[in-house]
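Q: Start with the shorter request: fold the first protein.
A: Done. Sequence, then structure:
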Amino acid sequence: MIRSLVLFTHVVGVLALFVGLGLEWIGLDGIQRSTTRAEALPWLRLIAIVPRVFGTALAAIVVSGVLSASLGMTGCARRTARCC
């Protein structure tokens, strides 16, 4: 049960990381195509969201990874030294 929850959290964190990268890419492309300040403002608002998405995603990835390692769910603890 806990292994499934940790794995789910890790996968959601990785997906959120890619969503953040996509938002950044779209926002930077929009800014590059803008010719006036008024055209660039909506893209800047979009890019302002990116650090929160990255922070949440990285926290989920790191916390689930540390929890997985501390609980011995990496798989190498039960196998021989050849695995690692």
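Q: Next, the second protein, separately.
A: Sequence, then structure:
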Amino acid sequence: MSKNNMFSLSKQLNYHTGGLSHILILKDGRLSSSAADNNLIIYNKNNFTPDLIIQEHSDYVNYHIQLKNENLVTCSWDYTLKIIKLLDNNKYKVIQKLKEHKFVVNKAIELENEKMLTVADDKFIILWKKNLNNNLYEVEKKIKCSVNNYPNINIVLINNDLLLSSSLSDYKLRFFEINNNFQLAFYFDNLDLCFSRNSVLYINEKDLLLVGGIKDNGVYLFKLKKIPTFIGKIFSDWINEVYSIILTEDGNILMGLKEKEKEDNKNGSENKDENYSYSICKFEIGKNNEVIFLDKVKNAHKDLINGIIHWKEKNMIVSCSKDKKVNLWKINSK
């Protein structure tokens, strides 16, 4: 098995037949994953075999969350969301099918007061609320979040005051004021944003926002005190694309990224053709908000790393990739 100063590959899960998009640790301590094979899988905590395979969508399940009431919400390329209740004996029940979006549904976020936000490739973010009579979701508000149909890929809460929305079609990062009826507050344009739903990280303690870029744009860095300020791009000289960014329990940053590297040919001259590796890199934030590279697992996957999580209970890092694999990495002691 692969060894590295940071992590050692402990186990590889090969139960999906399509590229993976998202992984999650559920409230009962189990791992879950969703993928392009239209399935969501929940794994046994001890042997990591599937406890449950949820097959309720007709297309790619590209994101899923668990609500405070422990129901799951799945987002799919079939233009729908499903609200799923987990039952005893590894069974489940679909409680509701949400069909208000008119294109691929990319992400969902739970708010306070049993409300929920969803974003899709149809120009709109939808704010949902619970109907007190039947306990089902209904549309409270539709927020127009871009001028073009394709794609509105990501939404992220910023301190419960701002809602970040990224759009690839017009290269803009928008900030909506949640308590001001979702009015557009600020935006930044001309950004080559990554299309992953896991490529944005907000660090509350430092008022710092990291946004993954694409096409050799590394990581965009913003300071978010009062008015968002663009600080600049980092690592654009060697990072080609950033598909996942997380903050670990110990305060470090992990990124799943596509790394550029150049090799010399046999004659010793530089080869102009760039090679790529899909790596997990570790960083820390310095005193002046500088992002400092620490270490990496090179070739952690064979394709885009769409998700990373820190599984504290197991002392593991879990990554998932378009290569159809879920990798469980043991965290090595220093």
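Q: Describe the second briefly.
A: Residues 19 and 322 are 4 Å apart (CA to CA). The chain has a mean pLDDT of 91.
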